[in-house]
UniProtKB/TrEMBL annotation:
Keywords: Hydrolase
Alphabetical list of CDD domains matching this protein: YtcJ_like (cd01300)
InterPro entries in UniProt: Amidohydro_3, Metal-dep_hydrolase_composite, Metal_Hydrolase, YtcJ-like
Region (Disordered): 498-519
Protein name: Amidohydrolase
GO MF term set: hydrolase activity, acting on carbon-nitrogen (but not peptide) bonds
One Pfam family in the UniProt entry: Amidohydro_3
Upper classification of the organism: Bacteria, Bacillati, Actinomycetota, Actinomycetes, Kitasatosporales
Organism: Streptomyces liangshanensis
Biased composition regions of type Low complexity, renumbered to the chain: 509-519
Every Amidohydrolase domain range: 52-536
Amino acid sequence: MTESETRTVLLRGGEVHSPADPFATAMVVERGHVAWVGSEGAADAFATGVDEVVDLEGALVTPAFTDAHVHTTATGLALTGLDLTGARSLGDAVGLVRAHATAHPGGRILLGHGWDSARWPERRPPTRAELDEATGGRPLYLTRVDVHSAVATTALLDLVPGVTSLTGYDQEGPLTAAAHHAVREAAHAAVSPQQRTDAQRAARTHAASLGIGTLHECAGPDISDEDDLTALLALAAGEPGPRVHGYWAEAISDGKGAARVRELGAVGAAGDLFVDGSLGSHTAHLSEPYADAPHTGTAHLDAAAVAAHVTACTEAGLQAGFHAIGDAAVGAVVDGVRAAAERLGLARIRAARHRVEHAEMLVPETIAAFAELGLTASVQPAFDAAWGGEDGMYAERLGRARARTLNPYAALLRAGVPLAFGSDSPVTPLDPWGTVRAAAFHRTPEHRISVRAAFTAHTRGGWRVLGRDDAGTLVPGAPADYAVWRTGALVVQAPDDRVSRWSTDPRSGTPGLPDLTPGGPLPVCLRTVVAGQTVFVGPKE
């Protein structure tokens, strides 16, 4: 352990969010773990026996957040490269591409992310000819906001032999499916090891500045590569910053495949193991056609393939997981996991805590199945904030009636389904308090959950899906992963107007959290600590 991890620290004079004491104002950290939480008066007994006393000056201390679905290198490249998430029109996006190419001369490949033509008045992405002109003929790879399709310049396509014959190739429009995967592989291969390291450092530094103490890296052969994952895990093990737990999204069929996943350092053969694609790219697999396209999307794995993967993982003691968004894809996951349970026994399946990423289009039957099979829903509330609502992208793709059924967090919690919150960054930004707000103020009111439940899903939920029930909360014995926040009054917010919207009554015995009413300021991170080691300190005011 480092010196900072072995020192004993008393934090006092603030608000400590702990189920051990809803009125706690102080906390002792020793050897990287929480040793005590309690009142200010009791803190006097520890003041002379610690290495350091920190005056919180009224600040709030909470468990550090866990982002349960991140693409770390891609997040860092977006932070350090071309970010189109703020582009308001096609012309704006092309202008940003041109400016980026001018600012980065030379032969290095240009990488960008975040265009969303559904939000632009032109309602179309840039053509290849437009991008060729804007880049001066240089290689450019530009992913849509959902990362399930991309546009590229001619110079990059020329680096991929046979790309025109691959599924998903389009002469002028976005690339999807196999064509997209091939072009993405060529683009990523052009990223130097130093670029990759710089991007990973940038992403972890940014996460720490937001009070995030743990990241679940969702890697895989169709997303990144083995070197990217192993380099990230080595970086996280050797440098201060958020913890990183890696997932490798490759289907396995036997113990040999499971051993290979473990050799990579991954905690599961899970994450973005694609059963389908995304709604924005019209590749999520639906049971009925899209409202704005005459097809039902793309299926990558069927129930039999899901069953084989879950069976092999469970027998090897490895966590399995899948990316599934459309109702047909979620149904295939449920049918496959149930088939594995019939073969191995329900208890073994539940004990493995297998997970499903996104799980957006659920019906009562699949929600019940998630609860029965012990599946964790690893979900991204910012998706609803970005694309939900009566006139959002979901309604455009599905029609308003189907769109209103998406992301039913309240129904999942009522059924007893564990939730783990994440961002899918860079699809949506790292933004933990914004994520909690998005769940509590879901665009469809019946799907809203309390701030407390959302906060739990974004702290403890990510630890539970890893099989750790002793972390993600500030109680004695838990890892000292915490963040210190400047915020306003603490309240207890409910998601339903039939009950009190918020309460500050201390008699409730419920620890308060910041008021996340839309339009108000979000808490500001002052310090982030992982295993007792400070990994971020905010600038002094």
